Amino acid sequence: MAITKLNKKASMGTAVFSAVSLKLCCWGPLLLTSVVGISGSSVYFSWLIALKPYLLAIAFLSLGLAFYQVYKKKRVDDCGNCETDKPSFFKSKFYLWLVTAFVVTMTLVSYYPQIFHPTATKGIVATNNTHIQTVKLNVEGMVCSGCEENINHSVNKINGVTNVTTSLERGTSIVEFDTTKTNVDEIKKVIQSKGYLITNSRD
């Protein structure tokens, strides 16, 4: 019985750990940049992208094992009262479903980030086109489509930015902005604050 209880907890713990690790390539650089101040730290987490399919498999296999352990029919053993044992919260069916919801959410965030970062359309009307400038930034450290959405969402919140298109494949971010409201340095600062590295820029 003790081993069974431990396995339930271990299975759900493994599922949570694997699900969190799916986003470590995005959250790790953000934490290092904001807490430690290491700019461009995303390059240190790029190796995690190759592990994402395996982490996903481990998460759902662990969930499957946890469901089996929680829902399987219990047998009365020599102690004679095992079926009356009330499981703790962390080994309960309710907690298992909470873990399941968390793992599914983390999977969606990792593979379909656009769901959680919808593209915002700005209603900016340029009164003078001479103030509109487009800059192409070379960005290092992007490892998945979530990085594209992260940069687009963050840069798009800058006052004066009218359009932003980030490409993981090209390693670039093309930003159109009003020079009377913002500038290239401010845009670079926002991208670098997310853990990415700007190598150079071209107007």
- Contiguous runs where pLDDT drops below 50 for at least 5 residues: none
Gyration radius (Cα, Å) is 23 Å
Mean pLDDT equals: 82
Biggest sheet: strand arrangement: 2-3-1-4
Label the structural class: alpha+beta
SSE string, helices as H and strands as E = HHHHEHEEHE
Strand coverage percent: 5-15%
Could you characterize the architecture of this molecule?
- Strand 2 and strand 3 form a beta hairpin.
- This protein is an alpha+beta fold and 203 residues long.
- The mean pLDDT is 82.
- Helix content is 46%, strand content 14%.
- Helix 3 packs antiparallel against helix 4.
- The longest helix has 20 residues.
- It has 6 helices and 4 strands.
- It has a 4-stranded antiparallel beta sheet.
- The termini are far apart.
Which descriptors apply to this entry?
203 residues, alpha+beta, four-stranded antiparallel sheet, 6 helices, elongated
Itemize the secondary structure elements and their pairings:
Elements: H1 2-21, H2 24-36, H3 52-71, H4 93-111, E1 132-140, H5 145-156, E2 161-167, E3 172-178, H6 184-193, E4 197-202
Antiparallel strand pairs: 1-3, 1-4, 2-3
